[in-house]
Amino acid sequence: MADGLDGRTLIVTGASRGIGAAVSQRLLEKGAAVIGIARNFQDSAIDNARFRPVPLDLAQVSALPDVLSRLAKTYAEVTGLVCCAGRGRFGSLEEFAYREIRELVDLNLISQMYVVRAFMPVIKTNGGGDVVLMGSEAALSGGRYGAVYSATKFAVRGFAQALRHECAAANVRITIVNPGMVRTEFFDSLKFEPGSNPDNYIEPEDVASAVCGALLVRRGTVVDEINLSPQKRVVRRKTDDAEN
User: Which among 20, 150, 223, 244 is most buried, taking Cβ atoms within 10 Å?
Assistant: First the structure.
């Protein structure tokens, strides 16, 4: 497989908005074809003939094995995955209903594992490629009110590390990207958000640049892990008038 993204086809999950949309747009600019997976694309601003949207709710994990198996047969040219789908939910453990724990684990962890499981044989058959998993700063250090969310992201990080060793002989590179607070719709349903100054948050395009950097590194070299942080970490509670 030649260096560069021209002629390559990559799957991007969570592709309709936020980090996934920014990654999709950057991959298209670099010449790749992108198969975007998201719950819906009603608000998607991507307009490119090489972008193929696939509406699919990754939270419905019981349906994923059959659906993903069919997609893997349909898109047999895939040589890369960028798994961006996920959501945040925070609070003390006892504030979570049992159902809410399961739903967060299903989307943030199980769905990523299922997508990789479905397309890994395709990537190997095509001579190798890349898998990029979206972690979080919460995968590096657990914090107050983040027990369940951090658990899902720590697990994704362990999954990436194990896959790195498992897939090296098949020329499949594994990268995990751990962003801090990114200014996206992620915070719409949360009680906090990053501060308003540009050095208080990461832009989705910053994450997209990091992903493309890992993909464009010389074959034979692997970017195992990328940690991205705002220059100044400021968290603002939405009920507060002042930043804390």
Answer: 20
Residue 167: CB atoms within 10 A of its CB come to 19
Distance, in Å, from the CA atom of 147 to the CA atom of 159, rounded to the nearest integer, reads 18
Regions of the chain with pLDDT less than 50? 1-2, 241-244
| Residue partners of 69: CB distance under 8 A and separation at least 6 | 118
Predicted local confidence at residue 2, as pLDDT: 45
pLDDT mean across residues, the chain: 90
Contact 58, 85 (CB under 8 A): yes
Taking the C-alpha atoms of residue 156 and residue 140, their distance in angstroms, rounded to an integer, is 11
Q: Which residue ranges form the domains of the chain, and what is each CATH number?
A: 9-237 (3.40.50.720)
